[in-house]
Amino acid sequence: SVSCCRPSPRCPGPPSAPYNLMCQVTSEKEADVSWTLPSGQPITSVNCQLFELQGNNSVKVVEKIFGGGTQSVTVTTGGSLGQYVLQVRADNQYGTGKPAAIRLG
């Protein structure tokens, strides 16, 4: 097992954030969200967290982990899509990468 404090060629660190997040609304409470994963980096899983916006706060509604090659999900909400934000992170053996987020609707 390798442990390290900062990225180096031997210990690359967590992956970069996914990018090119896009949202295609399919109904009042459902949307397809896609993204591009960083290339050239090992990715073991993709973590998606759905947040509901409540005034100045956001509350995590659900969190799901998908396989490392996942580049899209269908999101179904309990209310209007505009009240939700999806956050996507890539994970690997070195940790969890920074999130990318998109507001639905």
Describe the structure.
The chain is mostly beta strands and 105 residues long. It is 0% helix and 54% strand. The protein contains no helices and eight strands. The strands form two sheets. Strands 3, 4, 6, 7 and 8 form a five-stranded antiparallel sheet that branches. The protein has a three-stranded antiparallel sheet with strand order 1-2-5, with no helix packed on it. A hairpin with a 2-residue loop joins strand 6 and strand 7. The termini are far apart. The mean pLDDT is 90.
The overall strand count is: 8
- Helix count equals 0
Order of helices and strands: EEEEEEEE
Largest sheet: 5 strands, antiparallel
Give the overall silhouette. elongated
Helix and strand layout, with pairings?
Blueprint: E1 19-27, E2 30-36, E3 45-54, E4 57-67, E5 72-76, E6 84-92, E7 95-96, E8 100-103
Antiparallel strand pairs: 1-2, 2-5, 3-4, 3-6, 6-7, 6-8
Briefly characterize the structure.
0% of the residues lie in helices and 54% in strands. With 105 residues, it is mostly beta strands. Strands 3, 4, 6, 7 and 8 form a five-stranded antiparallel β-sheet that branches.
